[in-house]
Amino acid sequence: IRILDAISTEFNLGALGFTPAERYRLDQLLGASEGMLLVTGPTGCGKTTTLYAALHQIKSTQTNLVTVEDPIEYRLEGVNQVQVQDKAGLTFAAALRSILRQDPDVVLVGEIRDAETAGIAIKASMTGHLVLSTLHTNDAPSAVGRLADIGADLSALSGALKGIVAQRLVRRLCSECSIPVAASELPAEQQVLLTGKRTDKLRKPVGCAACRGTGYRGRMVVPEVLVVTPEIQRAIARKANRSELEDLARQGGMHTLWGAGINRVLAGTTSLHELLDNVSAPTTDAAASQTAIDQLLREMRPKHKATSSAASPNAAPPSQLASAHIPGKEAKRVLVVHEMRDTRRSLRLALEAQGLGVIEAADGESALAYARRLRPDAVVTEVAVPRLDGFGLLQSMRADSDAAAVFIYTEQTDSALLAWGLELGAVEACTTATDAAAFAARVRDVLSARRAASQIS
User: Fold this and answer.
1) Per-residue pLDDT tens digits for 113-128
2) Mind giving me the DSSP string for 9-28?
3) How far is it, in rounded angstroms, from Cα 322 to Cα 35?
C-alpha cells in the first residue's frame, strides 16, 4: 500500500530538500523555453512530486501547462491534467500527440515507457515545448542508455535533452532528539567512508515522542543534477558509454547521488546509516573487496555454519555485501542483487523459507565478484542496479561460462525488456507483480530440476 498525503505536501523545491546550489542548477533547466528534463529513480523515490514542484514554480496565467499521467496523483490549480486510459486507447503516446496540437508551453509526461512516447516527446521538445518526464534508472547518466534501449534516436536526443535529475529519498533526523556523534563512534566500515571529511556536525537518531521513537521526522530528496553541456551533447550523439557521460557530467559540476547524500550527512540533516540504506556507497578498492570475500569464505566453512543473517564484527561494508545467510554447504545458494535493502530482505526471507541459502549484493560489480568466487547456484537480479546493471551482470556471467541459473525479478514492466533478458540467457524474467513466495518456490523448483538433471548425466 502506498499512502499519499496530497494535502500536506508542499510543492517547493527547497522544502523537498534541494540545496541552494541544486536549486540554481534546476532553475537553469526550468527557465528554458524548450527542451527535455528527465527525473529518474526507482518507484517511490519522489519523481512525480519533484516534477509537480517544478510545475508549481513555473506556472503562471500566461503559461499553458498540460500533463499526461497514470494515475493523476495531485490536482494542481491552473494545470490541464489528462488521465491515461489504456483500455480506451488513450495511451501516453496518443494523449501526447493530441495535446501537442493545442500548442502547450509545458508538457509533463508521467513516464516514458516506449519508443513511440520517447520519439514524440523528443520531437515536441525540439519544436518549442518544454517537456518534463520520468524514467526508471539508477542514476542520471544511465538515462541515456535506457532511452537507447527502448529505441530512442540518440542523435535527436542529444539536441533535445537539457538535463537529468536522478534522486532518492532519505529520512530527516528528528530535530527534537537527534544528538551529535563522533566519527570514531561509528562502525569501522562507515568511518572509512568519512576519511578526510569534516565531521563536526555529524548527528545520530535517538527517538522521542515527537518522532514516535524512530529518531526521524519527514523525508528529503538526495539528487544528482546533470546539466547537458555541449560536450555531453556530442557524447550522446556518438553513443558514448555511461562512464564517459558520468565523467563529463562531473566536469560540468554534477554531484553524484553519493556525493549529494554525504553532504547532507556532514550537515547533520540525516544519518550515515540512513544514507547507506538508500544510496550505494562508492566501490571500494580491490584489496578491500578481496578481504570481504575471504571473510565470507571463512564464515562458510563447516565449523562456522551460519544459522542466522546477523552480521559478524568484521562484516563486509554495505557497498560490497549487504548480508549473507548460508546454512550448510549442501544447501543450494542464491545470490540476490538489488540496490534497496528492504527488497533484498523480502526476497531473502522468501528464499530461505524454501530451504535456500542466500547471499546479498547491493550493486552489480560486487555481485559479479561474488558470483565468480563463490559460484552460487542461482542469481536473482533487478535490471536497474548500480555500477553494472542486471543485463551487464548476466552477460558477464555468460562470458565466464558460469553455470548459475540467472533469474530477472524486476520492477520494470516493459515486455520487450523482459524478452531481451531471456535472449541474453536468463532462466526466467518476470516482474515484481509475481508474489515473492511464489517466485522463490519457482527458483527452488528450477534448482531441484537442474540438480536431478546433473545426477542423471
Assistant:
1) 889 989 999 999 998 8
2) ----HHHHT--HHHHHHHHH
3) 40
